[in-house]
Amino acid sequence: MFLLSLGALALAQLAAAGLPDGRMHGNIMRPPSIPIVPLVNNGPVVSRNGTVLPSYDTVYEFDQLIDHNNPSLGTFKQRFWHTYEFYEPGGTIILMTPGETNADGYSGYLTNLTINGQIAQQQNGSAVLVEHRFYGLSNPLPDLTVESLKLHTLQQAIDDLVYFAQNVNLPMPNGDKLTPDLAPWVLVGGSYSGALTSWTMVNKPGVFAAGYASSAVVEAILDFWEYFEPIRLNMPQNCSADVQAVIAHVDQVFSGSDTAAIQALKENFELGNMTHLDDVAGSRKSHNLKVLEPF
Question: Of 4, 50, 114, 129, which sits with the fewest C-beta atoms within 10 Å of its C-beta?
């Protein structure tokens, strides 16, 4: 499970976008990344002892291993954000990655507007946000070739979190003496990064003192047809009947042997040259149907 490639997620980031969240238009499912929490404090960040700290959006870099199975390949610059606004000696380090997205704009997760900052505030802790490999500017290799994406796996992502925690020199007093063997670390995540939190706690036990996983998608379902089932059950029955009739017709034609009917249907969708019928059907779900999202 941990060797499952995440390359498709990286390639998706390259698609042309027409909406701020990366979608070409509103008929495409929203991206699975966690929401951005806006920074509402425009003033200076001040620690509990009155020290003025760098702003939440200050970017730092960590020398992360390109390949945890072959450290001889060297390191790349992995971006992270950090504050010790609530830290007191003996406090907890709260670590999070936003997951499969550019981490720019996610520094709001360092504040107490989020569970991360609330844990830091309660536990006298320091909050850290680290960018996931192959997203934003944290790229192990300079391209997204198949060979490069062999390093874009769950296991590499898990190992990134562990290696970061065990080796980072946090930009704060005694920041080189706050590794998990000397201070408790809590790993936090939501959606994919929540799943990554769960998998890390199982795959690398004993590194993090605790994990907090929100809406963690721990089971990957390739054909998740149940996604639209609540809509089918709750939309007006005449509408749901029409949608089901269209789907049944496409399924019947594409699973049959009438090549002329198949080609005619493809051309009706202006996809006459497309060879993979599952892609033809999938494109209709994404581009031509009305928005049928359950959220």
Answer: 50
- Angle between helices 192-203 and 154-167 in degrees, nearest 10: 70
- Spatial contact of 179 and 166, defined as CB atoms under 8 Å apart: yes
Q: Which two tokens stand for residue 255?
A: 């699973």
User: What pTM was estimated for this model as a whole?
Assistant: 0.76
How many other C-beta atoms are found inside a 10 Å radius of the C-beta of residue 109? 26
**Distance in Å from the first CA to the final CA of the chain:** 28
Sign of CA dihedral 172, 177, 183, 189: positive
Q: Kindly report, residue by residue over 66-82, the tens digit of the pLDDT.
A: 999 999 999 999 999 99
CA distance 208 to 227: 33
What residues are paired with 185 via a beta bridge?
93
Task: Report CA-CA distances (Å) from 276 to 48, 58, 273.
Answer: 60, 46, 9
CB 150 within 8 A of CB 185: no
Q: Taking the CA atoms of the chain, what radius of gyration do you get in angstroms?
A: 23
For residue 229, the surrounding DSSP H or E stretch is helix 229-234
Per-residue pLDDT reduced to its tens digit, 111-123: 999 999 999 999 9
List the beta bridge partners of residue 94: 127, 186
